[in-house]
Amino acid sequence: MSHPPLFASSLVLYVSGSVAGFFIGAIAAILGVAGGEFIIPTIMILYGLDAKVAGNLSLCISLPTMLVAFFRYSQSDQFRQMLMHKSFVIWMILGSLVGSIMGAILLKWVNSEVLVFLLGIILSISAFKVFYHTKSVM
After folding, report:
1. Contact (CB, 8 A) for 85 and 70
2. Among 9, 88, 109, 120, whose Cα sits 20 to 30 Å from the Cα of 131?
3. Which of 102, 103, 115 is nearest to 41 (CA)?
4. pTM of the model as a whole
5. How far apart are CA 114 and CA 11, in angstroms?
């Protein structure tokens, strides 16, 4: 289910998308994530696209972000720390590959509203955990 874009002007949409992309890329690189947790809601809000389309576009947008972040982390201590957990990383990669294959197969049967609901739950839990972790560290 698509909604109208946030702005009527294409120019404003492109500029706001570029500005959002800049901040999402910066945050994603700092956190060492692909940025999908920010990209998908941004696409849905700015452009009014449904969750399935936003998720697919997020994959295309995330790839360059992941490559830059991976290169940056490969030059830092965080990468060496990651290598200490090599078996965990390998199992997560395998699980992610199987999950993405299954998700691609199930995509045509899963309702966009269900995906939005699940995304909302996941983002809410993530926000709570990040906030709680930040509070306990301070």
Report:
1. no
2. 88
3. 115
4. 0.67
5. 32
Least Cα distance to 39 among 77, 30, 27 occurs for 27
Measured CA to CA, the distance from residue 121 to residue 100 in angstroms comes to 19
Q: Would the CA dihedral through 130, 132, 136, 138 be positive or negative?
A: positive
CA distances, 54 to each of 1, 37, 45 (Å): 11, 11, 10
Q: Which long-range contacts link 23-26 to residues 24+ away (Cβ below 8 Å)?
A: 24/65, 25/65, 25/68
Q: Rounded to the nearest 10 degrees, what angle do helices 10-31 and 51-74 cross at?
A: 40
Q: Which amino acid is at 85?
A: H
Model confidence over 9-64: pLDDT tens digits?
A: 889 999 999 999 888 888 877 776 667 778 888 998 899 998 888 888 888 888 88
The token duo for 14 is: 């492109």
Give the tokens for residue 77.
């201590």
